[in-house]
């Protein structure tokens, strides 16, 4: 039987395993991320490409289909802001947690930026844009 507690424990174990792996292979290192974004070292880029290839195969085997539709109005500016923040700070939302756990305390600035950016996005959406958030809800 799946309980909330069981799911929480499974998520904690999976998160710790992912954090341990990411930390040990160097993907939590700002210099490694910088080399990826400047195409000086393709190791991380190829790891991401490999992950996408695996997901494509899994989706094909499971026959997952997505009906084409309009692109959500917030996808493009959101992707640009996300990528810019990732390139500047050296961390997508999960990596700063790995960096803090590894002793890289400046990652707290990134975590604060993520929190402030999320709050600003919600504030701007309710005040100015009114994008349909769908299942992401406010």
Automatic annotation (TrEMBL):
Transmembrane segments: 7-27, 42-62, 74-98, 104-121
UniProt name for this protein: Sulphur transport domain-containing protein
Keywords in alphabetical order: Membrane, Transmembrane, Transmembrane helix
Highest taxon above the source species: Bacteria
InterPro entries per the UniProt record, alphabetical: Sulf_transp_TsuA/YedE
Pfam family, one: Sulf_transp
Segment forming the signal sequence: none
């Amino acid at each position: 039987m799946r309980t909330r507690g069981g799911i929480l424990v499974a998520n904690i174990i999976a998160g710790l395993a992912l954090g341990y792996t990411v930390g040990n292979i160097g993907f939590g290192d700002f210099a490694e991320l910088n080399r990826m974004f400047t195409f000086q070292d393709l190791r991380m880029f190829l790891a991401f490409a490999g992950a996408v290839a695996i997901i494509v195969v899994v989706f094909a085997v499971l026959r997952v289909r997505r009906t084409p539709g309009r692109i959500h109005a917030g996808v493009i500016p959101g992707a640009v802001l996300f990528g810019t923040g990732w390139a500047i700070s050296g961390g997508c939302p999960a990596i700063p947690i790995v960096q803090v756990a590894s002793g890289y305390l400046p990652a707290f600035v990134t975590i604060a930026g993520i929190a402030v950016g999320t709050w600003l996005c919600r504030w701007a959406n309710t005040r100015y844009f009114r994008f349909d958030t769908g299942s992401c809800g406010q």
